[in-house]
Write a structure and sequence with these properties.
With about 425 residues, the chain is an alpha+beta fold. Helices cover about 35% and strands about 35% of the residues. The strands form 5 sheets. The chain has a 6-stranded antiparallel β-barrel with strand order 3-12-15-14-13-16.
Length: about 425
């Protein structure tokens, strides 16, 4: 028998009424569950807000001079301190005279070396010039005289030879004439040799020897002048006198280790050596920003950057640390070497992230939750968190800016059911 339209409508009405009843029951159940999960909002509260979040580590350290910024100045020669021109705390410029040693004997050495150099220079000039014009002219005149005598002896030999042939002179006279000719010939050869020696008195080897002796004399002068300069002790760097270890009238002896007169420190070139725990050193990178304080200025934060991480560890009391150097600026000169520093190194920084205090976070059933305040009640909200730093935690999802959350445990609450 076919179903009447009225009966079909009644059946759908019954189904709809049943659904309404089920929905109402579910709403009541959810409301009851929500009320069961709710906690009193009494207690400390905080607002989820945006801020700059920094991930940081802390370390202890010490202020020290950079390599080359602390110099121990000593004497390179032995002698008595005649003047001491440095006092602890005095600023000095590079090249300024710090002390003077007695130098009368050193000046005498310089004078003697200069005199030897002058003699060597004169000898070299004499050898390079050779014979004087007058000496050459004298040798040339002697040669001409010998040649004239030879010409006369040659003529006499010819004449006497002719006379002997005619029987006008004896053979003995002819022999005597020939003997005189030979002697005169030898005199001519000797005069020519003497003229050649006069014109070229010195050989190239003689010139080279004289030049070498002159250079040797010049080197002796330079050495004597350098030794004299060592009597005036000057500052090798710009800085402040940190230590004085001698006094006027004291005799110092230079040996393998030069005696130290003063110690100079350049306070503009300081750094902090931070002792970073082995747990944290793996996150430290070059160029990261670091701030530190010292006991002398507890309210002042000094800034710097990480410039080096030592590869070898320093073990103190069975604690493994790695030295991390931090370059700093000390324009006002407030920092001094060996000051103890409390260092904070910023590993990461994020600007404008949504955060809540660390105390607002709880772990329930393996999830991170916060209790958001609604009226007089606080309800659990699952959140996804990011980096931490400075007592705050980044909230990635689960809250909005301006939401109020509980900080710490709410009063008189034992129910910890999680909100679905």
């Amino acid at each position: 028998m076919p179903t009447s339209p009225n009966r079909g409508r009644r059946r759908w009405a019954v189904i709809a009424l049943g659904l309404l009843v089920v929905g109402a029951a579910a709403s009541v159940a959810v409301l009851a569950l929500r009320r069961a999960e709710a906690k009193p909002s009494a207690g400390p509260q905080a607002v989820a807000s945006r801020r700059t979040l920094r991930s940081q580590i802390q370390a202890t350290g010490v202020v020290r001079a950079m390599v080359g910024a602390e110099v121990k100045v000593g004497a390179r020669i032995s002698g008595k301190v005649e003047k001491l021109l440095a006092n602890i705390g005095d600023p000095v410029e590079k090249g300024a005279t710090i002390a003077k040693l007695e130098d009368s004997d050193l000046r005498a050495r310089v004078a003697r070396a200069e005199a030897d150099r002058a003699a060597a220079r004169a000898q070299l000039a004499l050898i390079r010039r050779g014979a004087r014009v007058e000496e050459i002219a004298e040798s040339e005149a002697a040669l001409r005289q010998a040649e004239a005598e030879l010409a006369l002896a040659t003529s006499d030999v010819r004449r006497r030879t002719t006379l002997v042939a005619g029987g006008l002179v004896s053979a003995e006279e002819a022999e005597r004439s020939q003997r005189d000719h030979a002697v005169t010939t030898a005199k001519v050869a000797s005069a020519r040799s003497r003229l050649a020696l006069t014109r070229q008195r010195y050989l190239p080897e003689d010139v080279a020897l004289a030049e070498a002796r002159f250079k040797q004399a010049e080197a002796a002068v330079a050495e004597a002048q350098a030794t004299l300069a060592y009597a005036a002790i000057t500052a090798p760097i710009r800085g402040v006198i940190a230590q004085v270890t001698t006094q006027e009238g004291e005799t110092v002896a230079a040996g393998l280790n030069s005696p130290t007169f003063v110690t100079i420190i350049d306070l503009d070139r300081l750094e902090v050596a931070g002792y970073v725990d082995e747990v944290d050193v793996g996150r430290v990178k070059l160029g990261q920003i670091a701030v530190f304080t010292v006991d002398s200025f507890p309210d002042v934060e000094f800034t710097g950057k990480v410039t080096a991480i030592y590869p070898r560890a320093v073990i103190q009391s069975n604690v493994v640390n790695y030295i991390t150097t931090i370059a700093i600026e000390n324009s006002k000169g407030r920092l001094k070497p060996d000051m103890t520093a409390t260092v904070t190194i910023t590993l990461e920084q994020r600007d404008g992230v949504l955060t809540v205090p660390d105390q607002a976070l709880r772990r329930e059933r393996g999830k991170r939750v916060v209790y958001r305040v609604e009226g007089q009640k606080a309800y659990p909200r699952e959140v996804k968190v990011g980096m931490r730093g400075g007592g705050f935690t980044e909230v990635i999802t689960g809250l909005r800016e301006g939401d109020v959350v509980l900080v710490g445990e709410p009063a008189a609450v034992t129910d910890k059911k999680e909100k679905p």
